[in-house]
Amino acid sequence: MLVNISQTNFRNGAMRMTSPIFALFDPTYFLVIIGLLLSMAASAYVNSTFAKYDRVRAQSGATGTSAAQYILQQSLINDVGVREIDGNLTDNYNGQTKILSLSQATANSTSVAAIGVAAHECGHAVQDANNYGPMRLRSAIVPLANIGSTASFPLILIGVFMGMNQTLIHLGILLFSFALLFQLVTLPVEFNASRRALSILSDGGLLTPQEVPMVRKVLTAAALTYVAAALSTFLQLLRLLILFGGNRDDN
Asked: Which residues does UniProt assign to the signal peptide (predicted)?
């Protein structure tokens, strides 16, 4: 893509962008590329790890669905339904509807990987039943995170094309930071759900002691995707701060 790059000047060791277009196409894109590569690597790792242990059949013969139902029953959770949904690794728990959704790759599979993923989602249901603090905080942040993800870049772009309007640009950066906050809060929620899942599987009869470490590898790989997403968002926020955080109106 060809762009016009106007003159840049340096002040106090920091590069200031005198062209709004240059601010959108500059070397700091390497931060975005690094974040993208991290996310791609984490996604590839979780997919390969799941595929590896999806080939290992659990000795109990339990499917992801029956495992989830068993765990919920053992945890005295009677108000959560389990359903099958389309997709691969699209498993999730919705605390508002009290529905635990398992993807086709999980619901009907008897692999240790499928049981581990189902147990992880049950971990979220247990968190919900126990009013787990970080999970409540994450739910409270969701509206702000959604607004931030949707409105941040349009506000920044409008600010840039209105002659570097600092109010709009900084408001956009602030909104984008809520998306990062959401992802940071998500980390302890996901790690805790995995710990709960491993504890449940270790104490129950769904997996043998030899199969539990396999599930640990699957859940660890899945957790890395959340870490990569948080790092990617942080790098994007860092880029915005480098580009616009120090800009001031000289007039």
From this structure: none
